[in-house]
Amino acid sequence: MYIACSTLCFARLPLEKALRLMAELEFSKVDVAISEEGAHLKPSEVAQDIAAAGLRIRIGPMLSPAAFSVELGALADDAFLAQLKAICRLARHATVPLLTIPAAPTGVGLDAEAKRLRPLVQMVESEGLILSVPTRIGTLTEIPSVARELCERVPGLGLTLDPSHYVNGPHQGGSYDEVFPYVRHVQLRDTGKAPGKFQVRVGQGEIEYGRIISQLLRHRYDRLLTVCLHDVAEAPFAMETEVRKLKFLLESLI
Fold it and tell me: At a CB cut-off of 8 Å and minimum separation 6, what does 239 contact?
């Protein structure tokens, strides 16, 4: 396994400064958030100029992109596909093997979501990439059994495991062992069960890092463990300090 850092950890910095700070913290791999609502790289910018986007996500040989976490928003089908295809080409040029896009919101039928995702998986696979959906509150994957069933219905679809959403969400800390066979990416922060405790200082939450890593190893997972704190104004701690602490903790466990 490899430790990566999400650009979301330093979302309030310009992208170049965020990447340089990650390099100073001795990360070698980056999970790049690509979102129209974000301050860093936007899907529309990628679609407009793939080469320019590629230059923006590299600052030197010691730090390279290793995953893309993509938020395309509410687009018409043609625009959605055009932007996703552009991001696939960027991933291929940057040797990024995996894209994560959100699953449909809760309330959408599982059959309908499987029908939507199947051609997307095929398109992404045609570029030599893996498509995954994150385990996330407010989407179909907020319940582990539904996340597992979605992967079973869509051959080739993986999961980006974010256990915070199973600790703090409606699942409320119940077992999510059934999703591990489908995990293709992992994003981590510490989290408590109580309202308002989705992101807490490392060591003050309920995330069982050692157990998660043991389960991943059982299923021969050899990909990224991404430090994925959310750089928000109301965060009650210094982001750089917490990122460093979680990096050291994960390194001690692998």
Answer: 9, 10, 229, 231
